[in-house]
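Data card: per-record layout.
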Amino acid sequence: MKQFFKFMFASCLGSALMLIILLVVTMWMVNSSTNSTVTVKPKSVLYMNLNYNIPERTTDNNLTDMLLGLKDMNSDMSGLNDIIANIDEAKNDPNISGIFLEFSAIGASPASLEEIRNHLISFRESGKFVISYADNMGQSAYYLATAGDEIYINPDGALDIHGMASQIMFYKNLLDKLDIEVQIIRGPNNKFKSAVEPYFLDKMSDANREQMTKLLNTIWFRLVSDISASRGVSIQRINELADNLSLAFDAKTAVEEGFVDGLFYRDEIIARIKDLAGIDPNKKINTVTNSQYASARPAQKVKADKIAVIYANGQIIDGEGDDETIGSITLSKAIREARENKKVKAIVMRVNSPGGSALASEVIRREVELAKAEKPFIISMGDYAASGGYWISAEGDRIFADPTTLTGSIGVFGTFPNAKKFLNERVGLTFDVVKTNENSDFGSIAQPLTPYQKAMLQKYVGNTYNDFTALVARTRGLRQSYVDSIGQGRVWAGADAIELGLVDELGGLDKAIEYAAAQANLTDYSIKDYPKQKDMMEMLTSGNLQEPYTKSLIKKRLGNNYTYLEAIENVSKLNGVQALMPFIIVQ
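The structure for this 587-residue chain is written out next.
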């Protein structure tokens, strides 16, 4: 009888799983069919709601997100690639009259925002309108909105402009209370490599405060300069109002000071859009979302010649990676495939990484070197291309970065926890060991490093830092002593990095692609993306659905606060010597 119920249960479970798979496949086919029939009517308005963490690339798993309740049929979470492509296509689309931006808080760093903003300005220069609206508008949203003709907020809303800050959490005192010691090995004179400071300090070091002050002021000046140029408000006045929070608590002040054009309710903004688009007041606006417009865009014509765009996004780890993590195996394979593809005439690697494993970075760098020997290899830096992110970029023929890209951070470190006192005195655990060699128990958290082990680690980390500075000196045509002087773990904004010789040109991904085409003597080509993204069906059949959708669910719940959880998660991935940027910046 037990066997009967066992087999019956297994049969029912199998049938249920098959039913779910059939349901997913059916909805996927219906969804794909629906998307393919999207048409853009005359006098349509491209509607952009960017209230989410904008990824580098649009994922192909929208339907699975819907099934798991992570998004509804009307939500839109397009990647940076589709957002920019949509703006450029809409500029020349006779059926698109303008763009309506509606967002309050955008999950994107300044570099991504600036790239979108530049394309919006180009769109507006074509003679079409760009109009923005929000009940409450945050700083990042407002910066993007200033690319347009008109900005409106709700009469009871607020415009939050308060400047930029970087707040670092220190856990030295907590570790002291727990009797846990983190043994830290840094590269020689890597005083700016502040990722390890929270382990042994309770506040910023003077060096870290110096680099953070310089970095934040460079980025903030860039943002307020753009705002000032667009709105005709002086930089001094913007800073005065940011200092006293005047705009955040009185919407009327935002109008009086020239930051916004009026205080509108939603029905009034709809009427204004109809007027700008030349639509009868009694008729509805034909709106098309980012995801809808992406499916309606003319399919890219497949050309014989191709430029590969390789996306290197996330922390660098050893092994396999995904859309949010750079795995040495995954990215190396992508670079190799682009190199061996005879139809690919040039390669652009889009780097958006704070770094990570030094060993994984070197594995990837070697593949860049091999590809560079056969065809033009151009680097496009996104929000971050620091530490290991710079390591994998240095070999490129030419490096493009945005003015607010965070780059440099040429430095390395290693951390080794010692929990002996915690385990012995607080938990009551003791350890004994039998070993064949002097250092057979090296790496155990139940004991501190010996002086010899620490000296060997210091030598290894020092050699890795020397390799890093030698790499940058060789590829950038600089003296190694000079690289050390601007290295030492220090992070630079793109606008400063170009003056230091770490970057060749300021510009986004589009400029990098144009340069690659010129280097390969291409005038007619198509773009091929690497690594290939797994679609919903591939993830379903591989059984690899749990992790990405657990992340998606957490992101939905935490919103922009997910960044902090992600930073904690990245600590768990640390293994071996790290070339990792010490912080993140959130507006």
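Known properties of this structure: Residues 5 and 116 are 59 Å apart (CA to CA). The first strand starts at residue 44 and ends at 48.

See the next section for split statistics.
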